[in-house]
Amino acid sequence: MRVGVLIQTAGVVLVCGIQAAVLTACSARPSPLDEAAWTQITSSETRARRLDAVRPPPPGPAMEIGQPATAEAYAALALARHPAIRAGEAKVRRLAERPAQVRSLDDPMLMLAPVGEMAETAAGRVRLMGSLSQRVPLTEKLITRSRIAELEASQAEAELRSLRLKIAGDARRAYWMYAFATQAIETTRRSRALLEQFRDVADAQFRAGNRPQQDVLRASAELGNIDARLAELEQRRASAQAMLRQLINAPADSTLPPPAQFDYDQIELERLALLERALQANPALLRAAERMEQYRQTHHLAELNRVPDLTVSLSYTMVDDDGLSPVASGRDQWWIGLGFNIPIWAEKYDAAEREALFGRLEAAFELDRERTSVTFEVEDALVRLDAQQQTLRLLREQIVPDARAAVEASASTYRAGSGDFLTLIDNWRTQLGYELMEHSAVANAGRALADLKQAIGQEGEP
Questions:
Q1: SS (H, E, C) the chain
Q2: Does residue 355 carry a pLDDT above 50?
Q3: Is 322 inside any structural domain?
Q4: What is the mean pLDDT of residues 68-82?
Q5: Is residue 51, in this structure, part of any structural domain at all?
Q6: Against a cut of 0.85, is the pTM above it?
């Protein structure tokens, strides 16, 4: 009897030890993360709990923005610093850990019965019963689950590439807003200085009695109008600078260098080659194709789930020989068992297969939609780029030089006393409009090229 009590006590201690080990394993810090990643996670969570969590930490010495002066420089900075990209990279790394989880077997189940009213057999009284079981599905099921998880991770990578392309494109487009506003302000200020000269000439001729006062008043009104236009351009430049700072994750008080000059009237692109590249490299198309394959694998898994899984078990019974029965041998018992689940509820398996089939159909239509959309984006960007290049050539070769010559001629005639001030103002206004149109054509060409790079999957310079 004393032996039986000791056996029961040992069984209880064993169960308690197993529970403690399980709780310790569950509460332990995840081991695959390195110390740097763990420190980054804990510090981020600490910042998120603060009231000022909406304010990002200021960049350190390694986060200086330097002197970006081109659209490509801002795109590179945005790709290196934007927090959404860092989040997307973490998502890719997170999903990359799933295949190893789904292709592994479930944990084996250990069951012990050390306490209770045990059976008394011919071999003796049962003191401890235990079993160890393991569910073993088809190997093809595990492989298919792993493939589905890998496709989910691949889709996350494609989403990350799309995000990177969008952020780079946004940086380029914001740069061209900034460049246009900056150049338009410079041109408008030069034009304002020229208008002030015309007003001074009109004022001098009015004082000399050669011209009416309305010429001076008209010039003053135009100066007020151009000051309002300058205020609007300043606001547009400030908005573009704020957008650039947000995209490159720069402090709000950081100073951006002036934009560099770039000429877009000499770019020659091959339409068919760009279309082929876009259809091969655009991440939205890749993601849709991988989604189709994922649903195909999901349908295959739904079919495999109709096949029963095998459960293998090993059972053991400890028998105590108390010496009271002449026939009791005290021999322990053990046996191996095999079990199968019985997939008889066909409704859920049918529904799973139909869901996967509709998913494949959805992904196929999505792939067609993305292909059509990408084709349109490439062709639209090419058409806009070509139109802006033609506009630039006309403006630079003919329209702007003729407008400047008209202003010079009307100004000379007015100074000579025979010209009309209204004609001079109209010519001056026309020249300013064409010069601003030239800057707008350059910026529009830059935005069209940014859209084209995003459509063909090009993050930086080729």
A1: CHHHHHHHHHHHHHHHHHHHHHHHHHHCCCCCCCHHHHHHHHHHHHHHCCCCCCCCCCCCHHHCCCCCCCHHHHHHHHHHHCHHHHHHHHHHHHHCCHHHHHCCCCCCEEEEECCCCCCEECCEEEEEEEEEEEEECCHHHHHHHHHHHHHHHHHHHHHHHHHHHHHHHHHHHHHHHHHHHHHHHHHHHHHHHHHHHHHHHHHHHHHCCCCCCHHHHHHHHHHHHHHHHHHHHHHHHHHHHHHHHHHCCCCCCCCCCCCCCCCCCCCCCCHHHHHHHHHHHCHHHHHHHHHHHHHHHHHHHHHHCCCCCEEEEEEEEEEECCCCCCCCCCCCEEEEEEEECCCCCHHHHHHHHHHHHHHHHHHHHHHHHHHHHHHHHHHHHHHHHHHHHHHHHHHHHHHHHHHHHHHHHHHHHHHCCCCCHHHHHHHHHHHHHHHHHHHHHHHHHHHHHHHHHHHHCCCCCC
A2: yes
A3: no
A4: 90
A5: no
A6: no
Let me know: does 309 contact 137? Beta carbons within 8 Å: yes
| Rounded CA separation 161/287 (Å) | 10
Query: How many Cβ atoms sit within 10 Å of the Cβ of residue 462?
Result: 5
Examine the pLDDT at 323 and tell me if it is beyond 70.
no
pLDDT digits (tens, 9 = 90+) for 405-423: 999 999 998 888 788 889 9
Domain for residue 96, yes or no? Answer: yes
Instruction: Find the CATH number of the domain harbouring 198.
Output: 1.20.1600.10
pLDDT digits (tens, 9 = 90+) for 247-268: 999 988 888 988 987 666 556 6
423 and 410 in contact (C-beta within 8 Å)?
Answer: yes
324 — pLDDT class (breaks 50, 70, 90): low
Does 52 score more than 60 pLDDT?
Answer: no
The whole-number pLDDT of residue 31 equals 47
Distances (CA, A) of 125 to 5, 297, 332, 335: 12, 53, 10, 18
Q: Note whether residue 299 is domain-resident.
A: yes
| Amino acid identity, position 199 | R
| Domain ranges, residue 189 | 72-104+147-306+345-462
The tally of domains found in the chain comes to: 1
pLDDT above 60 (res 4): no
Does residue 248 or residue 212 have the better pLDDT?
248
Query: What is the pLDDT of the chain when averaged over all its residues?
Result: 83
